[in-house]
Specification:
Elements (H helix, E strand, L loop, with lengths): L2 E5 L3 H13 L3 E5 L2 H10 L4 E5 L7 H11 L5 E5 L5 H11 L3 E4 L4 H11 L2
Parallel strand pairs: 1-2, 1-3, 3-4, 4-5
Helix pairs in contact: 3-4
Length: about 120
């Protein structure tokens, strides 16, 4: 069982992703923004970080930068559903060190496949 941190400010999407991952036998910890994620990462170890890009407080790009500075090995999946500039945000996330990027809305099978690929 893998331990995954999911970071997203949309509670509905956060719950949906959590359900999908738990059905796939993963243990999920959630955070509503980058600041909460940083606190959780300081207290726990994770096998994968999944983060939204555009969030209040600390957004996903800053979180990815922070993760890469402190832990270069952990896989990161970045996602964005921003109507405006989603491709630009995701391209920047990739440059900062995200291993995979996904555009919301998420497709269940593709999402779970991507997660499991990153956990290998």
């Amino acid at each position: 069982m893998s331990k995954i941190l999911v970071v997203d400010d949309d509670p509905n999407l956060l719950n949906l992703v959590k359900q999908w991952l738990e059905l796939d036998q993963h243990f999920v910890v959630s955070a509503a923004n980058g600041n909460q994620a940083t606190t959780k990462m300081n207290n726990e170890e994770f096998d994968l970080i999944i983060t939204d890009i555009v969030m209040p407080d600390k957004e996903g790009l800053g979180l990815i930068r922070e993760i890469r500075q402190s832990n270069g090995d952990i896989p990161i999946l970045a996602m964005s559903g921003t109507k405006k500039n989603s491709d630009t945000y995701l391209a920047h996330a990739k440059k900062l060190g995200a291993d995979r990027i996904l555009v919301k809305p998420l497709a269940h099978d593709f999402f779970i496949g991507t997660v499991n690929e990153l956990l290998k």
